[in-house]
Specification:
alpha/beta, single chain, 3 domains, 20 strands, Adenylosuccinate Synthetase, subunit A, domain 2, 10-stranded mixed beta sheet, binds inosinic acid, Adenylosuccinate Synthetase, Chain A, domain 1, globular, Adenylosuccinate Synthetase, Chain A, domain 3
Length: 434
């Protein structure tokens, strides 16, 4: 049995929820390694729609175990709420969900700080307002409060006092900032209530792997939102790329066998920042409408554009992707013609690497290949041979441009609406999917 990482190879919202749900059958444990409740994984299971923000979607499978690793930032009230919502839907979390006691917590003042930070900036980032960035700032600033600290009243008291002194300096006239006692009591009570979920997840995962258990590492957000490799500063505050799976769980790289990238048949982005293939025309709106492109966490309309092979090839490189899973092919069913970005031109010159400077990326002209649309329904197709020839041509073009095989294609939200595109794929041999 293999241990695999699933990452988003664009700007998030690639449809990882469905793919992880599909793969979960072949694993014992599903582990989240970064981000927080800014993620939104939508899964359609037995006709019911679940949106999970913090807990791995593996929780929907009764005999699977789930881990929230040390790299995740945890809002304890959001965790409690999600556990309660799942329990109300008949899904048990006790004994199946393990949260790292080294994970840092998001507290009320992180959200306040984020709001004021956005207001002060010359250009907004367009965050999800969940306090994610400020919580990671505290972590890197070596003043963050971890779950193991919240569990110890004396430690929490001391750390919180110090943190609030510093936050008061940052927010001198912030009227809504909750006071020490309120934060202290709420955090301590939540931690006490959730105590049974907290463990040393690095130890837990490594022991499980020693015993032959298979782990699926569930990436949140996407490669271009990674704090190191993404379109900085228009990124999230964690490592959404494959490398984050090691630091965010304490499982070493040589224990992980493969990395799978999920992409949409087109591109979307929520929040601000450069987007070379963005469509501001009717076609963009049509894609948004057909693809129901609205943020799962914030409900914001997503910006839509053509598939960008430059960007996905960059994601292939950064994650060393073994294979691609392409989702939402059916969203393009009614288009007369479809474009694929094959290169970026900056001041007349074709670029050979993905540019680090936002100003350059913003001024890049996307070069396109235009292909005819298939103008036929692919929604729900389960057999590669049944796809229209032009749709198959499109998949081949994408695969050739990105230089990565496409092993699975998704043609609808249900798990049955899935095509094995490349039967000899390494992915399938890893997990014996068929
Ligand atoms: P933050 O993660 O809330 O700090 O937001 C930073 C950027 O990441 C913003 O552009 C968000 O819209 C984006 N972002 C955060 N989480 C997701 C996600 O799950 N999908 C897509 N974009 C996300």
């Amino acid at each position: 049995m293999a241990n695999l990482i699933v990452v988003g190879a664009q700007w998030g919202d690639e449809g990882k929820g469905k793919i992880i749900d599909l793969l979960t059958d072949h694993f014992d444990i599903v582990a989240r390694y970064q981000g927080g409740h800014n993620a939104g994984h939508t899964v359609l299971l037995h006709g019911r729609r679940y949106v999970l923000h913090l807990i791995p979607s593996g929780i929907l499978h009764p005999n699977k175990l789930c881990v929230i690793g040390n790299g995740v930032v945890v809002d304890l009230s959001a965790l409690k709420q999600e556990i309660e919502d799942l329990q109300a839907a008949g899904i048990r979390c006790k004994g199946r969900l393990f949260v790292s006691d080294r994970a840092h917590v998001i507290l009320e003042y992180h959200r306040t700080l984020e709001r004021t930070d956005e207001e002060r900036r010359a250009r907004r980032i367009g965050t999800t307002h969940r306090g994610i960035g400020p919580a990671y700032e505290d972590k890197m600033g070596r003043r963050g409060i971890r779950i193991c600290d919240v569990l110890n009243r004396d430690v929490l008291q001391e750390m919180l006092r110090e943190n609030l002194r510093e936050k008061d300096r940052l927010l001198p006239r912030e009227p809504g900032l909750p006071r020490f006692e309120a934060i202290m009591e709420q955090a301590a009570a939540l931690a006490e209530e959730l105590r049974g979920y907290f463990v040393d997840t690095a130890d837990y995962l490594n022991r499980a792997i020693d015993q032959g258990k298979a782990v699926l590492f569930e990436g949140a957000q996407g490669t271009l939102l990674d704090v190191d490799h993404g379109t900085y500063p228009f990124v999230t505050a964690s490592n959404a790329t494959a490398g984050g799976a090691c630091t965010g769980t304490g499982v070493g790289p040589t224990r992980i066998d493969s990395v799978i990238g999920v992409v949409k048949a087109y591109t979307t982005r929520v929040g601000e920042g450069p987007f070379p293939t963005e469509l501001t025309t009717d076609i963009g709106q049509e894609i948004r409408r057909r693809g129901q492109e609205y943020g799962a966490s914030t409900g914001r309309p997503r910006r839509c554009g053509w598939f960008d092979a430059v960007l996905v090839a960059y994601a292939r490189l950064i994650n060393n992707l073994d294979t691609l899973v392409l989702t939402k092919l059916d969203v393009l069913d009614e288009l007369q013609e479809i474009k694929v970005c094959t290169g970026y031109r900056y001041r007349g010159e074709l670029l050979h690497t993905f540019p680090p400077e936002i100003r350059v990326l913003e001024q890049c002209q996307a070069e396109y290949q235009t292909v005819p649309g298939w103008n036929q329904k692919t929604a729900g197709i389960q057999d590669f041979a049944e796809l229209p020839v032009l749709a198959r041509d499109y998949l081949k073009r994408v695969s050739d441009l990105v230089k990565a095989e496409i092993s699975i294609v998704s043609t609808g939200p249900d798990r049955t609406e899935t095509i094995i595109a490349s039967p000899e794929s390494r992915l399938l041999s890893w997990i014996a999917l068929r």
